[in-house]
């Protein structure tokens, strides 16, 4: 790829025309994630920390099934999520490079990522390392929109994304895949899963994967940038596993883990030096799930997560490592058709770097939640108290109500509060950190209507999320009068309408989504950086016993690279194709072709994006 080309697209999609086309033909991606031949109602765990039918979940949500992950042909979690409603991304180059995810206009620090119930985040930057999470290890993804601090504590302002790694069941089964594509891309995966028979069943699943690419030139020449005229590739190795032992009916012990190691090249301003970012992400947990009485269930979990990011440049080495340990005990008590939940947690976070910000902090939490169902009426109320050793205590809450107009049509509404904790960088980084910084506060209200009759489904959700006490970089620093520092100054108002839809017609499934939003910095009266006023997807899938194929167009309006709105980023529309052919019961050929029309576009100022690119591969044992 030529390093002198900065791809930009300035395609203008009238938002009203898009809205009319989506609402006229399709229904929501939030409930249209399962393939046409799957009739089972999706079940969500993330919204209430217990299994619920999707039709009874009051929070706006979407589910990405194993079948959809497989059919998409994507190999990156961030690329898969980019095609979903309510989600935007920014990425500093190609696959393997630093990425940020925005939900409903909220910042990357206001979104929680869970891996099998364990939070994965850097305590120093405040964001998950999205590019480190291997999609090949994931069996299922749940996305819940809106404030979730009353269930998960700090940072769940815009929503929660939980990925579930692969589980074992039934006879032993081996899976494998291999693929190769554009930019020297090579991908391999191998797994084994199954379970034993008898009264003391053991379920197991172990998976490994490797990815690599020679890549393309990630940056473009800008004043003050670290541009180098070379290719920026990456390599990533990942392993995951789950083991569960059923001691007796309703009594289970288990453990799970995921570990990923990435090595990516980037430009640091010295063409003669091979600058690299080496990152490690891991989550480990052990748990005991016990049905103590017929109406009392207990889930006790001890987990550890770490995020290590080390950068090597011609001027030196930067090491930013953090880890956290969580002890959690959740009690679910059935009261007739209702459910009372009592959750206690103790979390310890630590940062160890080569910078003077080595610190640790602890959070003690108590949460109460009550879910009720009275005929067609659904209700939920929850509250949580978090006491942090650094920034003090915070109380959050949520109240929701829903009504089933019919078995296939539901309306719901909710209000909730949330907060975002200051990062270790914002508190302690030399010359920038401010130990007086306090958490950001969010207040959200939303209403929605959801329809799903098994063939057609449709959803519309309107939300209004006011975020105060926002942490920004203030210049000059009010404490010293020079330089810059973190400070609680700004206020944001995130409002929007999220529409989605899907309809099955024979072997075809039509789907689409549209987000019309106004993510405003109320202090400056500007759009929040890198967030568009509209974005969405239009697509069609075809699935039969032998062959499946899909096409989708992802589009976004223009955005700005800075909070002053002086650096515009053009809108874009990308056409993507995918296909799978079943050679036999065990063997499949798969292919994907992204950015088919080779459109020029920008996700982050100063960074290139992939041109037309594809991947061709073969799978064994996935059907």
UniProtKB/TrEMBL annotation:
Protein name: TonB-dependent receptor plug domain-containing protein
Ranges where the TonB-dependent receptor-like beta-barrel domain occurs: 205-596
Family membership noted in the UniProt record: Belongs to the TonB-dependent receptor family.
InterPro entries, per the entry: Beta-barrel_TonB, Beta-barrel_TonB_sf, Plug_dom, Plug_dom_sf, TonB-dep_rcpt-like
Region forming the signal peptide: 1-32
Keyword DNA repair appears in the UniProt entry: no
Compartments reported by the entry: Cell outer membrane
Domain of life: Bacteria
Entry keyword set: Cell outer membrane, Ion transport, Membrane, Receptor, Signal, TonB box, Transmembrane, Transmembrane beta strand, Transport
CDD domains assigned: ligand_gated_channel
Membrane topology value: Multi-pass membrane protein
TonB-dependent receptor plug domain span: 62-160
Taxonomic placement: Bacteria, Pseudomonadati, Pseudomonadota, Betaproteobacteria, Burkholderiales
SUPFAM superfamilies: Porins
